[in-house]
Design a protein that fits this description.
With 348 residues, the protein is α/β, with parallel strands linked by helices. The protein has one domain: Alpha-Beta Barrel (TIM Barrel). The chain is 50% helix and 13% strand. The protein contains 17 helices and 8 strands. Strands 1-2-3-4-5-6-7-8 form an 8-stranded parallel beta sheet. Helix 1 runs antiparallel to helix 15. The radius of gyration is 19 Å and the shape is globular. Bound molecules: adenine and zinc ion.
Length: 348
């Protein structure tokens, strides 16, 4: 399409990364719950928190691994009780997304985190769904929901929550697999994912964040995952990298998350440049932005600042990959790709 990427200087990159249209495909909506909203909802619902103030809670956000984060993340989610709470949480995210030129978002949600506390699944799904509808009406953001099973719980528990969710089947487009990865391989969920595929749901799974490359293979072979969430540990297995590239399986990479959860010591050591160089359909995402120090544009800007191998060509590729990897129809995808070309042509 003739964009001359070499004409775009490094000094132009931060603004271009912010303004380019993009899709976000890996955000846990419960991970967008900011401390201020946690305290507001705790007060509204009469929930007692283990921290005396917003500042004290934020100060606890120093994680050593995935589990140390999950413990605080599930405690934060305990303030969500009513449909309005789920709406307010998602609406706060969409207000930020609109300012970041996110044109499409696929939101993960964890129903078991709430149903295990006695929250009706209807409140969870309808609250989130109404926020998605309003985001489209007010901001033109297309948004859909992906229901995640918690892998530290049993497959029977996953099958049970799926049954509870089926009356609301029209409100979510797919299922995913999240929470503690090590010791909970994808094959633990073979039956429930087979059932989801029969139901016509899209299928994704976290794999290769903390877990080994074999978990990525079993997410593909056993669960038939269409995308791999994180997946960064594939670099330890060159044959797997080749397979992911050949089959164009997207990876939803989350750079700030990876540093906060000690997958990499720093952004400068992140393997995103190697993934792109290998021809993978890698995308950039925020994972749990309220906990990891930045929303999607901060992930882009900070990662590009830390890695000189990433320039305008890679920025364009990542945005393009986000549309290729999204579960949207061809017309929507083509429209956003056209707008992306326009933004880069104007910058060059
Ligand atoms: N739940 C929320 N964030 C997660 C992550 N990064 N990995 C696994 N489960 C999660
Ligand atoms: Zn995640």
């Amino acid at each position: 399409m003739g964009i001359d990427f070499d004409r775009i200087g490094r000094d132009q990159l931060p603004a271009l990364l912010r303004v380019m249209p993009k899709a976000e495909l890996h955000i846990h909506i419960e991970g967008s719950l900011e401390p201020e909203l946690i305290f507001k909802l705790a007060e509204r619902n009469g929930v007692k928190l283990a921290y005396p103030s917003v500042e004290a809670l934020r100060a606890a956000y120093a994680f050593t691994d995935l589990q140390s984060f999950l413990d605080i993340y599930y405690a934060g989610a305990s303030v969500l009780l009513k449909e309005q709470d789920f709406f307010d949480m998602a609406w706060a995210y969409f207000e930020k997304a609109a300012g970041e030129n996110i044109v499409h978002a696929e939101l993960f949600f964890d129903p078991q985190t709430h149903t295990e506390r006695g929250v009706p699944i209807e409140a969870v799904i309808l609250g989130l769904h109404h926020a998605c509808r309003r985001a489209h009406a007010e901001f033109g953001i297309s948004a859909s929901l992906i229901l995640c099973f918690l892998r530290h719980l049993s497959e029977d528990a996953a099958l049970a929550v799926l049954e509870q969710a089926l009356p609301y089947r029209e409100y979510f487009i797919g299922v995913g697999l999240d929470s503690s990865e090590r010791g909970h391989p994808p094959e633990k969920f073979a039956r429930v994912f087979a059932r989801c595929r029969e139901l016509g749901l899209h299928v994704v799974a976290h794999a290769g964040e903390e877990g080994p490359p074999e978990y990525i293979r079993s997410a593909l072979d056993v669960l038939k995952a269409e995308r791999i969430d994180h997946g960064v540990r594939c670099v330890e297995d060159p044959a797997l990298v080749q397979r992911l590239a050949a089959e164009r399986v997207p990876l939803t990479v989350c750079p700030l998350s990876n540093v906060k959860l000690c997958v990499y010591p720093s952004l400068a050591e992140h393997q995103l440049p190697a993934l792109l160089a290998a021809g993978l359909v890698a995308t950039v995402n925020s994972d749990d932005p309220a906990y990891f120090g930045g929303y999607l544009n901060d992930n882009f800007v900070q990662t590009f600042a830390a890695l000189p191998q990433l320039g305008a060509r890679e920025a364009y590729q990542l945005a393009r990959n986000s549309f290729e990897a999204s579960f949207v129809d061809a017309a929507a995808r083509a429209g956003w790709q056209h707008e992306l070309d326009r933004v880069f042509s104007a910058a060059a």
